[in-house]
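chain below, 429 aa
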Amino acid sequence: MMKKLFCSMLLTVGALHADVFDMFSFGKLDAALNVVIGSGKTQEDLGHLRIQLDLLQKQERVLHEENHTQIEKIKAQIGACEQNRSYTGQYANKLILTLKSSIQVLNTIRSSQKEWIAILKSHIALLEDYVKDPDLAGITGEAKTLYNFDDLKDLGNQIAGQEERLEVERAQKKETELDLENSKKKVAAAEKTVKEKLREQAEFSKDVKAHDRYVHIKSEILDAEVLLAGYETDSLILKTQEKEAKLALLTDAVFIEEHKLEILKKKLDFIVRISLRIEAEDVRQAEEKLKKEKQRYLTATDNFMQAIETLTIKEEKLKKELTFLEKSYDEPGKDIQNLTEWISTVQSFEGYLNLGEMGLKNDELLLLEREADFLKSKTEFEKIKFKAQELNFDMIASWYKIKHQSFKTSDELVAEVKKYQDLGAELVR
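prediction:
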């Protein structure tokens, strides 16, 4: 979280690079802030998606009825098999297992269909929102004549958050691409299995041995396996189509998120080149705020250190008491490690009392150690907050010098930029 805070603040000085400012000239500004993308194809895509959704919803209703009918039929077949006294042993178990597997696959098909519909609805909603605001003007807020450092910092934080979202979307897209590739391979393998089972079914009568008393149930098993293989193939095909729909959704989502990021960065570029205004009073106020923050930080950390010192004294006292108890009692399981892991054993009533006293002292010691760790974490958190405030002041001072052309040479500007680049590289690690 704090790393993101620092990175978002560093974005506000990302434009400090010499090629942005061309030393004391601000360079050429693009005429437009936003990249306008034609919405014709988007409207066309929306039309296709709506048609597809309508068809899927109609198919889903039919599929629901067909699946329900088929599941009830299979359940009845399972019931008949269980009641048939001649159907016992491994063959009966295999038949029942195959039939139950078919029910599971049919339920999976129904779930996949619903998921596909949900993905299409999400895709339609995404594109509908985009069509309403294809320039994505809503993400940049109201335009201002002049911007201050807080505006710049807020925009830097917005860009940092946008980059995180884009990273997540890209990772999901890549994962879905891999899933889709694997799914297609599974479909090919399933289709091959169906062909093999159909061939086995067609040749079954040729391989039947005379007087095989299990021939009937074997044929039922094979029929059930053919049916299951078909269901599994249908399920995998449907899952593949679902992943294709998800990939299409993520592709458009990544495109839109990239567009948003581009717009935000263009606004950042516009602000730092043209509209950012930082005066000496801004620097003075930031310095005064830093002084107050430093005093608060020093007071808070001093209080934490005193509390940690007090806890340390208590810890040392408890450790001595535990050492004394360990030496005083000769009882199996007295080891402190055993106490911590609750694996101690005793052999007498007095041993229970001794073990209880040692366990109490040990738990008190563990509690003190956790309290000390918590205070150390709070100290580190306060340190990070103060460092952020220091960085905030440094950046305001740097921007003031840049905007008022206080650098005498290009080397001074390069040195100013480098200290932020070094910090950014450290944070990335």
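Residues 283-428 form one domain. The longest helix spans residues 215-275.
thats it, cya
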